UniProtKB/TrEMBL annotation:
One Gene Ontology molecular-function label: ATP-dependent NAD(P)H-hydrate dehydratase activity
EC numbers on record: 4.2.1.93
GO biological process, one term: nicotinamide nucleotide metabolic process
Catalysis: reaction(s): (6S)-NADHX + ATP = ADP + phosphate + NADH + H(+); (6S)-NADPHX + ATP = ADP + phosphate + NADPH + H(+)
Cofactor: Mg(2+)
Domain YjeF C-terminal: residue ranges: 42-322
Binding, ATP: 226-230, 247-256
Pfam families: Carb_kinase
Binding site for (6S)-NADPHX: 142, 195-201, 257
Keywords annotated in UniProt: ATP-binding, Lyase, NAD, NADP, Nucleotide-binding, Phosphoprotein
Protein name: ATP-dependent (S)-NAD(P)H-hydrate dehydratase
Organism name: Anopheles stephensi
Enzyme class, spelled out: lyase
């Protein structure tokens, strides 16, 4: 997806191209994401969006991702999201954080480009020029609830809407959305990634009303509800996908950050492939599958002592087993 091509344009073109498929979809039907191990149609579609590692590609073509988050207390979350995006296969990842978090995040990895701008007096003026260069933004990991920073992030979301920038909103970014749902209403290309508590804040506890609540967000907003079975609500094709169970009983912190970061890379690839009627749905399925399988692999090695860093170490073997293009 070039800088001049919006997510809405890409998706709408594919929607028109595949309209006969869409017309055959039952309204808000429920589908299971995986029929048998490594043989799911969705998994095959996820493999198809992964770019080949051709020698004629240049830096940046596999994805330039932005992470907006971090705070004095929470420096691990933006790091986990950023390094996961990078290890899945993005070429460059920028982290926009408050000054107090910047040096700590930089110390975790020299691979990340860290901008200590989020709490500066002219944060919007300094961050806005970078937005055009980025393919997908993740807003929320470790963000905290500082009022000034929340106001800055709200303004960034409005600018991203004007730029038609693909956006993933996670963690405290979702808290901001519960305070002002208009920030994402009818925002084509937004993915929300709530856990169980965040999902209830957004849509209530009545499962029968969830689809109605989702519909109020407008077409083009996708939700992945994280849980034992991740559920993907696709407002474009009006379907709900039940992802397969996976992982382990170990629920260490940081897994949602791993999912958000990997989702950003998969989302860009799905949009760039220009072959998916619902790139957000396929990207959500890929990120869910990757995260749960990383948990499974890491738990097999570490057991109860497993942490998110152990899961991130498993991104390569999991990706190689599930998504990589194999030579005949």
């Amino acid at each position: 997806m070039s800088n001049g091509t919006s997510v809405a344009t890409v998706v709408l073109n594919q929607f028109v191209k595949n309209k006969n498929i869409v017309l055959r979809v039952a309204k808000f039907s429920t589908r299971s994401g995986m029929s048998s191990e490594n043989k799911s149609p969705l998994l095959e579609r996820a493999r198809n969006i992964v770019p080949h590692l051709d020698t004629d590609r240049h830096k940046g073509q596999a994805g330039r991702i932005g992470i907006v988050g971090g705070s004095l207390e929470y420096t691990g979350a933006p790091y986990f999201a950023a390094i996961s995006a990078l290890k899945v296969g993005a070429d460059l990842v920028h982290v926009f954080c408050p000054d107090a978090a910047a040096q700590v995040i930089k110390s975790y990895s020299p691979e990340l480009i860290v901008h200590p701008l989020l709490d500066s007096n002219n944060a919007i003026i300094q961050i806005e020029p970078w937005l055009e260069r980025l393919h997908v933004l993740v807003i929320g990991p470790g963000l905290g609830r500082n009022r000034q920073i929340m106001q800055t992030v709200a303004e960034l979301i409005k600018i991203c809407r004007q730029l038609q920038k693909p956006l993933i909103i996670d963690a405290d970014g979702l808290f901001l959305i519960t305070q002002d749902i208009s920030l994402v209403k009818d925002y084509y290309g937004v993915i929300l990634t709530p856990n169980a508590i965040e999902f209830c804040r957004l849509f209530g506890k009545d499962r029968d009303q969830i689809m109605l609540s989702l519909g109020r967000l407008g077409a083009g907003v996708t939700v992945i509800e994280k849980g034992l079975n991740d559920r993907i609500y696709d407002s474009l094709t009006l379907e709900k996908y039940e992802c397969p169970q996976g992982g382990s009983g170990r629920r260490c912190g940081g897994q949602g950050d791993l999912l958000a970061g990997s989702l950003a890379t998969f989302y860009y690839w799905a949009l760039e492939s220009k072959q998916e009627i619902s790139p957000a749905m396929v990207a959500c399925f890929a990120a869910s599958t990757l995260t749960k399988t990383c948990n499974k692999y890491a738990f097999k090695q570490k057991g109860r002592s497993m942490t998110c860093s152990d899961m991130i170490d498993q991104i390569h073997p999991v990706f190689d087993d599930l998504f990589e293009h194999k030579k005949d």
